[in-house]
Predict the structure of Phospho-sugar mutase.
Amino acid sequence: MQDDLITRAQAWQAEDPDPETAQELAALVEAGDLTELADRFSGTLQFGTAGLRGELGAGPMRMNRSVVIRAAAGLAAYLKGKGHTGGLVVVGYDARYKSADFARDTAAVMTGAGLRAAVLPRPLPTPVLAYAIRHLGAVAGVEVTASHNPPRDNGYKVYLGDGSQIVSPADAEIAAEIDRVGALADVPRPDSGWQELGDEVLQAYLERTDAVLTPGSPRGVRTVYTAMHGVGKDVVLAAFERHGFPAPALVEAQAEPDPAFPTVAFPNPEEPGAMDLAFATAAQVHPDIVIANDPDADRCAVAVPDDAAESGWRMLRGDEVGALLAAHLVHKGAQGVFAESIVSSSLLGRIAKAAGVGHEETLTGFKWISRVEGLRYGYEEALGYCVDPEGVRDKDGITAALLVAELASELKEQGRTLSDLLDDLAIEHGLHATDQLSVRVEDLSVIASAMAQLRAQPPASLAGLRVVSAEDLTRGTQSLPPTDGLRYYLEGDYRARVIVRPSGTEPKLKCYLEVVVPVADGPDLVPARARGQEVLDAIKKDLAVAAGI
């Protein structure tokens, strides 16, 4: 076994086109580090509905040029098999380590396979790539990004010609083509022949943002903005300037792209501490709101003033922003279907019902939300919002930021705030309190064990509330295809709901909790909020015990 492992490592090294990872592998072989080699050669990085994502490094279980070339060759074979020979593939990339290399390799493979390739001019937000696919009439698109993952990761996100991320069975069919790829030397990779796009695509994307806002609407909100060391800054500033908003005050230490993400433990606005510098900047300039993008700018976080918070600011949950944007669109007269993932708040359904617009729930991920027929607005609790599906059929943190800014400006002109509108929604529909129990693991078997334990011994009650319905979502439902998840509904007036699932992009077990607290007549929501948090905390405690985490 030892000899076989060394032989495989040496064979991989011999055809590695990247001197850096080839040297890394040679050093492991020379050191005889069998544990590390076994980890890197224990299988292959799996191509799924999010494409590829993993830690950078040498070997088939890491993200590297060899893995990307094989993925690109498999995608090219899939596209040609679907009759798209000669079709255009658009490639975008963020500012992470190796992203530009992976983008160039993809363009070279597509060109060598007889397809046409066009590469965005520099690191740009993922929504620009998603827009460019349909704008340019491409048959597919690739975005090289790991979104909000740690610095050591990178990824490979694939879209088809409708501008949506791939779903089954396309993912399995592409994976099968990847498995058929032989030696890398047999994959044609010319040194040129693809198109290097200019700023015309970005300009077209910015022009498309005109559709998001109402002409003549107020634009007076003052904003602090952080790009979280990602690629969002220049596009956000251009969009705000185009639409007449005051230029956001930047969190300077996080404004420019930096693949090391030096000021945060994880470059995700949801993670503890990630927004500290933004709040410190807000304490100096006193804005109306704080807006953050994640590194590839497809997510949007919003914070509001809060005297009770130590920083003076409170991050709104994704469900809160999702409800605010829905209410704003309803007020603007939006028609069509409002969609959300099953792990998002049920408040959207109540807003849609009251407004007389359609409402649908999908599986987690915008690959599902974007495919809802007649979609007008879609959101997911993990800070993802699709506010212009005709422009970008994916979550878009830039157009979402514009719509948040418009709403905050309108409220400001009325002497009101985003928090005031949230209170209005709670009084009208009940206080929808949500929370999450999220467990990051080093060993993925911990997640599998927790899911197995919950399936073998589902909880009879949580927070003293009897579990009246326990669904294993691997069996699917009348409206949802199968997925690895569990859903519980609890008895009582709180309409409590719990969903447990493994994360699709990170080594996490995620548990999504919601309780709906009836609100008595009157504007004082403090007791309802306190009661909601009390029930959520009790559910979290009991669920952790039930799952063995």
